[in-house]
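Quick one:
INPUT:
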């Protein structure tokens, strides 16, 4: 293979309300976490596993996420994985891995905090690819959500 690919696709539910801030340059940045659920059978027992993904969104898309999303909202995310280095209070290096999202599609029938549909930066029609049911491969009942 001649190159490499850094692409993340997530379909899941927000674990808490989005956090919108403006950095010193004035750019909007929105952070939230998304839970994905996996169900699998181990012997005769069904098991479930929840993974949490940190998401960061920039600019106008960040503002729309803050306006329309809330805890529990179902979203489709496309972006790239990135790891940030930062210093804690004890001046020790820390690292955070997150998805830098460039497409966010609101999959709930009604937008969380207001009326809204899909939203993205860049081209495309704002719809998630066909075949993504948003249930993470598991059950669609409310019991499969970790909150």
């Amino acid at each position: 293979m001649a190159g490499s690919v850094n692409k993340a696709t997530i379909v899941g539910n927000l674990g808490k309300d989005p956090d919108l801030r403006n950095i010193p340059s004035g750019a909007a940045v929105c952070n939230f976490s998304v839970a994905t659920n996996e169900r699998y059978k181990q012997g005769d027992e069904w098991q479930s596993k929840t993974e949490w993904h940190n998401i960061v969104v920039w600019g106008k898309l960040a503002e729309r996420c803050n306006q329309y999303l809330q805890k529990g909202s179902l979203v489709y995310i496309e972006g790239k994985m990135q790891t940030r280095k930062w210093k804690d209070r004890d001046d020790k290096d820390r690292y955070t891995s997150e998805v830098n999202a460039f497409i966010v599609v609101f999959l709930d029938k009604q937008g969380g905090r207001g009326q809204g549909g899909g939203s993205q930066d860049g081209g495309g029609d704002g719809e998630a690819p066909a075949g993504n049911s948003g249930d993470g491969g598991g059950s669609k009942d409310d019991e499969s959500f970790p909150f």
